[in-house]
Amino acid sequence: MVNIDKNSINLSDEQRYELFMQNLMSERSAWILTDEHGAVMLTEDEEDFVPFWPTEETASLWATQEWDHCKPLQISFDDIKTKWLPGMEEDELCLIIFPTTELTGQVFYPWEFNQVLDKKLAKLARKN
User: Fold this and answer.
1) Which end of the chain is more exposed for a tag (fewer CB within 10 A), N or C?
2) Distance CA 128, CA 119 (A)
3) Which domains does the chain possess?
4) pLDDT above 60: residue 1
């Protein structure tokens, strides 16, 4: 398991993205926040984003103030690839990876993130 704790939020966007990807590939899951309406979304400049975090703890850091009713939900790697990314593409949503409370983080269109995952999987397959 990758060493990720609440202090990881102080890393750069790229460093948090790298931690997220290492954890996603090793743990085969990621975390979102949900409420009674489904996945929590962020909106900035008329773009809607679904935030993804590497661990339950990092997702929980967001469950404060207006979001204190939200609960972390673990999503498997396979569900991300087969359900979430196609659904987000259809709904014209972007991903924001391991965002800070200032809404900074690496942003991807679902098709872009799917390509990243495909490259990671191909690289892993070559290693094995």
Assistant:
1) C
2) 14
3) 12-127 (3.40.1350.90)
4) no
Residues 28-41 have pLDDT tens digits of 999 999 999 899 99
- DSSP code per residue over 19-78: HHHHHHHHHSEEEEEEETTEE--EEETTEEEEEEBSSHHHHHTT-SGGGTT-EEEEEEHH
> What was the pLDDT predicted at 126?
86
Q: What Å distances lie between residue 72 and 6, 58, 123, CA to CA? A: 15, 9, 30
* Residues 115 and 95 sit within 8 Å (Cβ to Cβ): no
Phi, psi dihedral angles at 70 (to 5 degrees): -85, 150
Residue 8 has pLDDT above 90, yes or no: no
